[in-house]
Amino acid sequence: MLSLVFSIMFMIFMSFLNRSYWMVQNLIFLFMFIFMIKYSSLNYFTQISYFYGMDMISYGLILLSFWICGLMLMASEKIYLFNNYKNLFVFMIIFLLLMLILTFSSMSMFMFYLFFEASLIPTLFLILGWGYQPERLQAGIYLLFYTLLASLPLLISIFYILVEKKSLSFIYLSLEVMSGMNLLYLSLIMAFLVKMPMFLVHLWLPKAHVEAPVSGSMILAGVLLKLGGYGLLRMFNLLQEAGIKYNYWFISISLLGGALVSLICLRQTDLKALIAYSSVAHMGIVLSGLMTMTYWGILGSYTLMIAHGLCSSGLFCLANISYERMGSRSLLINKGLLNFMPTLSMWWFLLCAGNMAAPPTLNLLGEICLLNSIVSWSWISMIMLAMISFFSAAYSLYLFSFSQHGKVYSGSSFFSIGNTREFLLLMLHWLPLNILILKGSFCALWI
């Protein structure tokens, strides 16, 4: 574990060299493959040191962090070409990757909290430094205050647990159950509900996505939303007793919110806003599955977190490719792209199909597990689940048909075929999304 952390720390120095942009990207992929081969057989916590260790949940999410950070550099070629503070940009991505790896491999609750919050800083700089409109300042403040205000009760709760249990180790605390602590239950999970985000505390996400550069959107959708799910997976061992009493509130809000947000998706005209709201709907199902505290629920939520990270990130890349050509993200202007960029239409179709959980994507496996768990928890939830599934297909098809079909906007008279880098970028999102389902049992190994 230390070798991996030191490797990434020394990459920070490379970010200040002038011609190191693509070298850093290649090294990120190289370290990912070394990591994948070296630690491919984990059942329980392994690679344990004083503060760090790994199990199967950490393993999958660390791999996802590596993958998305490598693809972020590939997607942001404009920053490299126009020399838009590219060294600082590379530094931010390496620092973010380091924080994410330390978050997912922390075995102490306080260290987890520290790196969980630290990952917010480079994301904020990405939005403020390389965002598009002046409104990015407001989006950054939304992101900062939503996350920090919800995290303060978590910090106080961690200190309370330290006083009560004399330890903050996840392994030790997994054997403990805190009883009769209703306020503790709320303060421990609130930070993760905001990060996921749960409906009612989700307003920062569409704002942040719309104002962020493509790399900011990719890391937000790909990895940072998964920090909330990961935190809940770790905390629910402690909160089983309170969870049985109060989880139904959050399941109800998530399912109702998922259906409402799906309807909001159907009236979006901004490509990025539509994809951002679809993330809220998907993470609502993930949260509901987690809150059922069943084997199927935890398994499905973990699978869908990985799948959503790849699929949503790929859709943001597509939106950015269109934005670079057309100068707008509006669906009213991005029409008839089938005539304008015929080679990209296949990628739009494949990733929109992934977004609506069509076979053979990993999203399908995750949603089947989650449907099982939520319906077995309460059959009344079938009503909302049916609406979410139906509208999920509706807004994915709406996104595809509105952007690809129709009369071409008169301002875009030139034809574009896209370049190799863009096709490689999209292929690297789509391939793991469809290949991982062949090894679906892999996700179940950690339980």
Please provide a written account of the structure:
Helix 3 packs antiparallel against helix 5 (86-105) and helix 14 crosses helix 18 (362-377). It is built from 20 helices and no strands. The model has no long low-confidence stretch (mean pLDDT 89). The protein has one domain (1-444). It is mainly alpha-helical.
Brief rundown of the structure:
The chain is mostly helical and 447 residues long. The protein has helices spanning 2-14, 21-38, 56-75, 77-81, 86-105, 109-118, 120-130, 136-165, 170-173, 182-195, 204-211, 214-235, 240-265, 271-291, 295-326, 337-340, 342-355, 362-377, 381-404, 420-435.
> What is the number of E strands?
0
- By secondary-structure content and strand pairing, the structural class works out as mainly alpha
The portion of residues forming beta strands comes to under 5%
Oligomer: single chain
Shape: globular
The span between the termini is 22 Å
| Rg, Cα atoms, Å | 21 Å
> What is the H-and-E element order?
HHHHHHHHHHHHHHHHHHHH
Total helices: the number is 20
Helix content: over 70%
Integer count of domains: 1
Q: Residue ranges: pLDDT <50 for 5 or more in a row?
A: none
Largest sheet: none
Instruction: Report mean pLDDT, rounded to a whole number.
Output: 89
Family: Belongs to the complex I subunit 4 family.
EC number: 7.1.1.2
Catalytic activity: a ubiquinone + NADH + 5 H(+)(in) = a ubiquinol + NAD(+) + 4 H(+)(out)
InterPro entries: NADH4_N, NADH_UbQ_OxRdtase, ND/Mrp_TM
